[in-house]
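Why should sequence recovery work at all? Because a backbone constrains its sequence more than one might expect. Tight turns favour small or flexible residues, buried strands favour hydrophobic ones, and helices have their own preferences. The token representation captures these environments compactly. In the example below, the structure is given first.
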């Protein structure tokens, strides 16, 4: 019986060793599984933190872009208002340019007519000046003839007076005055 008990004890000891070894192997496998799961959880936590950081940065970037969008929208609105004002001013300016162009054409026509009128007047004045020169020459010729006629008449009157004086002296007994 003793052998049986020793054998039983050895079998139980070997069974316990096998169970202990089996438990150790299972525990090592469990620890590896737990470690791999812990690593996986750690990796997922890091990924989540990275994604949270990306989300935070994305939200900040979205907020910044929204601000930029709002600013650009305000700028576009202001630019559109400015463009509308400038288009109105451009229309007014073009209308003013057209009006002034028409007025300038009218002034050109009036200036052209005035220049033509002045040219006709200048031609008339030139013609009148030539006629005045001719009349002056004719007047000078007539005055020269008149002066010559007056000289001839004065000479005739002088002869007449001398003749009358001689006749008067011949009619009286007075001696005739000496001739000059």
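From this structural description, the recovered sequence reads:
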């Amino acid at each position: 019986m003793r052998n049986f008990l020793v054998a039983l004890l050895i079998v139980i000891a070997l069974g316990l060793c096998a169970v202990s070894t089996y438990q150790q192997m299972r525990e090592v496998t469990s620890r590896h599984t737990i470690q791999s799961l812990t690593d996986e959880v750690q990796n997922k936590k890091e990924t989540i933190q990275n994604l949270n950081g990306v989300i935070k940065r994305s939200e900040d970037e979205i907020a910044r872009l929204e601000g930029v969008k709002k600013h650009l929208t305000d700028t576009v609105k202001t630019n559109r208002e400015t463009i509308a004002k400038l288009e109105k001013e451009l229309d007014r300016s073009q209308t003013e340019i057209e009006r002034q162009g028409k007025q300038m054409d009218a002034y050109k026509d009036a200036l052209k007519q005035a220049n033509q009128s002045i040219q006709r007047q200048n031609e008339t004045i030139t013609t009148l000046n030539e006629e005045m020169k001719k009349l002056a020459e004719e007047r000078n010729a007539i005055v020269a003839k008149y002066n010559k006629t007056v000289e001839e008449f004065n000479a005739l009157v002088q002869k007449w007076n001398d003749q009358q004086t001689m006749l008067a002296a011949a009619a009286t007994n007075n001696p005739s005055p000496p001739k000059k």
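A few observations help interpret the result. Residues 2-171 form the longest helix (170 residues).
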